[in-house]
Amino acid sequence: MNTALTRMFNVQYPIICGAMMWICKEEFCAAISNAGGMGNLTAANYPTEEEFRSAIRKTRTLTDRPFMVNVTILPSVHVTGEHHKMYLRVCAEEKVAGMEISGSPIDKSCGMEYIEMLKKAGVKLFHKVGSVRHAVHAEKVGYDGIYAAGIEEGGHPLNDDVTTMVLTPRIVESVKIPVVTVGGIADGRSMAAALTLGAEGVMMASRFMATKECPIHDNIKQEIIKRHEHETTLICKSIGLQGRALKNKTVEEVLKLEAQRCSIMDLIPLISGKRVAEAWETGNVDIAPMMVGQSIGLIRDIPTVKELLERMVREAQVHLQKAQERFA
C-alpha cells in the first residue's frame, strides 16, 4: 500500500495500534511493527524515566521498524504533569519515529518548547482529536498528522460525539496534514471505507486485543468475540472524562453512581488502573471497565498479528475494487 502514512514512516501497511494501558509494552509493540504495521508503546505503563527509556531501547532490540509512542495528557491519579514532560523529553532524546498525543495538546499542557524540541529531533507528532477545531489547532502549532477519533472508539472519545463517518472527511477537508481514522476499524471493509473518506491510514486498538500476541487473558479475548456492537456504553461523562467501555457489572455500578451525581472520588475505586490490570491478568470480565469500541461487533476470531494485517489489506483491496466496478 502507498499512502502518506506509509511514506512518512516507511512502513508496509498504514495500520497503527492505538494506546492501551498495561497492554502496549515492548513485545506486543514490536510484534505489530514486525508484521508491517506500527506498534504502540504506551508511556503511562512506565512510572520512571529509567523504565521508560529502557522500554524504548528494548523495543528497538525486538524490531528494527518504526513504532509509535503514546502520551495521554488527561487528569490522572498517578501520571502527573511532570510525567508528561519527562515522556516528551525522553522521546525527543531517543528520537522515536512518531508519537500519538491524546487529550490536551502539547502546547497548552506542556508548552510550545516541547513541540519545538520534538520536531528538532525529527519526531512525527500526531494528535488524537474528536473535532475539526482541535485538528485545525494541532496543524497550526506544528503537528505532522491527525488521528480523527469518532465516538465509536474505545477509550476516551471527545464529548462532541461525532461519528467516524462524518469526522474523517470533515477533518480531511479542513487540514493539509495526513489524517488517520480511529473508531469502528477492525477489518478490511472498515479500512477501505476510511481510505475512501480521505484517510491516509487507520488506527485500531480493540481489534489488536483479540490477537494471539496480545498479553491479556484468553477469557477477555473470548468475551470480545462473543459481544456485539451494542454492548458498549459511555461512562464517566458526569466527571468530564467520557469513556467507552464494555457493558459489565462494574460499568453498571459506575453508571448507577453517576446517576446519583457522585464525585470523582466515589468512582476512582471502580475505574482504577489497578482493577484493569487485574482483569487483563486474571480474565475476570466483570471486575473493571474494559475500554473497547463498537468495533467489537466486527471481531470474530483470534489471529496472529501478521495474519490480521495481511487479511485486512487483502479485504480492503477487494472491497475497493468492488466499489470501483459498480461505476464501470
Detailed description of the structure:
- The structure is a single chain.
- With 328 residues, the protein is of the alpha/beta class.
- It folds into 2 domains: 4-216 and 298-325, TIM Barrel (Alpha-Beta Barrel), CATH 3.20.20.70; 226-294, no CATH class.
- The protein contains 15 helices and 10 strands.
- It has helices at residues 4-9, 26-34, 49-62, 81-94, 106-109, 112-120, 132-141, 164-172, 188-196, 206-209, 218-226, 249-259, 264-271, 273-282, 305-325, and strands at residues 15-17, 39-42, 67-73, 98-103, 124-129, 145-149, 179-182, 201-204, 232-235, 243-246.
- The strands form 2 sheets. It has an 8-stranded parallel β-sheet with strand order 1-8-7-6-5-4-3-2.
- Helix 2 (26-34) runs parallel beside helix 3 and helix 12 (249-259) packs antiparallel against helix 13 (264-271).
- The longest helix has 21 residues, at 305-325.
- The chain is globular, with a radius of gyration of 19 Å.
- The mean pLDDT is 97.
Shape by Cα distribution: globular
Strand order of the largest sheet: 1-8-7-6-5-4-3-2
Any idea of the CATH topology of the largest domain? TIM Barrel
Describe the biggest sheet? 8 strands, parallel
Give the CATH architecture of the largest domain.
Alpha-Beta Barrel
CATH-level-4 superfamily name of the largest domain: Aldolase class I
The count of domains is 2
CATH class of the largest domain: Alpha Beta
Percent strand equals: 5-15%
| Measured distance between first and last alpha carbons | 23 Å
What proportion of the residues is helical, as a percent range?
40-55%
Order of helices and strands: HEHEHEHEHHEHEHEHEHHEEHHHH
Mean pLDDT figure: 97
**Rg, alpha carbons:** 19 Å
